[in-house]
Design brief:
The chain has one helix at residues 49-55, and strands at residues 14-15, 21-23, 29-35, 38-43. With 59 residues, it is mainly beta. The protein has a four-stranded antiparallel β-sheet, covered by helices on one side. The chain starts with 13 loop residues before the first strand and ends with a helix. The mean pLDDT is 83.
Length: 59
Amino acid sequence: MKQMTTPCKTTRLKRSKLENLFRHAKGVYFARIKVNHKSKERSLHTTDYNLASSLLPER
């Protein structure tokens, strides 16, 4: 009998110095936000760290 395996979710996002700012393997920065107790990633459409940190949504 064939055993079913669930694919594990791999991420290419790496943490940066800021809490909710992550960098994709291709260099684009993402903001990680929580909506209804679920984590969502949104692209900031930039590879510049200073610009990405200024685009992070304020709490």
